[in-house]
Design a protein that fits this description.
Layout (H helix, E strand, L loop, with lengths): L1 E6 L3 H18 L3 E6 L2 H5 L8 E5 L7 H11 L4 E6 L4 H5 L6 E4 L4 H19 L2 E6 L2 E6 L3 E7 L2 E6 L2 E6 L2 H8 L3 E5 L2 E4 L3 E5 L2 E4 L2 E4 L5 H13 L4
Length: about 240
């Protein structure tokens, strides 16, 4: 499932974008979950990095789309930003916030479909990301999608995956910054792939038959990230 935020103060345009996303989903058999925000302030307040794509109008009350994008980019370097605007001159400024593209109003479905297809292609390429792990015969690529959780022990990273357990020297902190929003720390030793969480019992998160301790200092943030993952269509 792809999670898309629509930030648009014009109800007619917002509804049209929802319709276009649903139409594309039916054509491509790609499940699209969309949520509408009526202005930039609504999405920036208490922002959580749970979105795959954000469609942003530029001219909005309270907080314009460009300013909202600047604030979002500080909190979320990975989300794909696409501006929806009737002012083409904003396109160049969009590169300052690493926007992928822009769509001109009035929005044409076929033009919109091209931009959306491009964004989904980028997301697909990210999902095929891999990490290098050591094996008896050397090293191999391990798909990130197969990781259940990663454990750090004596400066070694132990990758617990659906393909077995592997290890490499490395830093859990550095790995955390590259794996993305579907992974969360339950304590200083474990980085958990939220997709593989089977449940939480007291102070333990259950992952593929293993019970991993949730530390008191990380419990609130971990549970919030887990809740957001399920709330916005994870798994």
């Amino acid at each position: 499932m792809r999670r898309v935020a629509i930030v648009e103060d014009d109800a007619e345009y917002a509804d049209q974008l929802v319709e276009f996303l649903d139409r594309y989903g039916l054509e491509s058999k790609e499940e699209m979950h969309s949520t509408i925000f009526r202005n930039g302030l609504n999405i920036v307040e208490d922002y959580q990095p749970v979105w795959d794509i954000i469609l942003l109008d530029i001219e909005m009350p309270m907080l314009d789309g460009m300013t909202a994008a600047e604030r979002i980019r500080v909190l979320d370097p990975d989300v794909i930003l696409i501006f929806i605007t009737n002012m083409a001159q904003y396109a160049i400024k969009g590169y300052e916030v690493d926007a992928m593209d822009f769509v001109l109003k009035p929005v044409n479905y076929y033009a919109f479909r091209m931009k959306l297809r491009k964004a989904l292609r980028v997301l697909g390429e990210r999902s095929t990301a891999s990490v290098l792990v050591r094996t008896e015969n050397g090293t191999r690529k391990l798909p990130v999608s197969s990781l259940r959780y990663v454990e750090v022990r004596d400066h070694r990273l132990i990758y617990h995956s659906t393909q077995g357990d592997f290890e490499m020297f490395g830093s859990l902190k550095e790995l955390e910054s590259t794996l993305g929003r579907d992974f969360a720390r339950c304590n200083h030793c474990y980085l958990v792939h939220l997709r593989f969480v089977d449940g939480v019992q007291e102070d333990n998160v259950l992952v593929g038959g293993d019970a991993l301790k949730i530390s008191r200092t990380r419990k609130k943030a971990f549970m919030q990230q887990l809740s957001d993952y399920y709330r916005f269509g994870g798994r």
